[in-house]
Amino acid sequence: MKTELINIREIKTNPNNPRIIKDDKYKKLVKSIQEFPEMLELRPLVIDENNIVLGGNMRLRALQELKYKQVPCVRANDLTAEQKNEFIIKDNLGYGEWDWDALGNDWDAELLDEWGLDIPGMNNSFSDANKEIFVEDLEKSTCFFKLEYTMPEYELLKKKIKDSGKTAESIFYEALI
After folding, report:
1. How far is CA 171 from CA 9, 99, 143, 166, 175, in A?
2. CB within 8 A of 61, min separation 6: which ones?
3. Which of 37, 58, 115, 138 is packed most tightly, with the most Cβ within 10 A?
4. What is the pLDDT of residues 46-83, one digit of tens each?
5. Radius of gyration of the CA atoms of the chain, in A
6. If we measure between CA atoms, which residue out of 127, 161, 162 comes closest to residue 147?
7. 63, exposed or middle or buried, with CB in 10 Å at 0-12, 13-18, 19+?
8. Is the four-CA dihedral 111, 114, 117, 120 of positive or negative sign?
9. How many Å from the N-terminal Cα to the C-terminal Cα in the chain?
10. Could you tell me the fold of the domain covering 3-90?
């Protein structure tokens, strides 16, 4: 497919886009584009024959904020309405899984976080890879607990947390008070 530069004023956000971006993630996206604009050429916006975005609504919003004049786009012409909807959803799916051991050993966690990767433990969540639980106290300072247990115990713990309908953080917080 051919990438073409299109005037940003001609591109329309998709009014039916079911994807949102939160403030912190949006700021990271804007910063990412500022620091690595070449990424846009490697991953252009996908638009239909009416210049409506099928892939890249959040990037378009960031590009508008950054006052871009032209944007690299790929046209997805001749798709049915059903195919457009399918593309919108599938473009935002994450089929794979992260190898947390490789990331933990070979990558810089702060850079990964800066690039927008949600790292278990850095955002006070249950970490399957490291079997660690972080608890946030009332003053918002982070406490760290490292637990050691067998794999069957680990699987049972994950199931009990899921079945409780509570977060790992709230269970441990309740145990502390």
Report:
1. 50, 27, 14, 7, 6
2. 13, 21, 26
3. 58
4. 999 999 999 999 999 999 999 999 999 999 999 999 99
5. 21
6. 127
7. buried
8. positive
9. 59
10. 3.90.1530
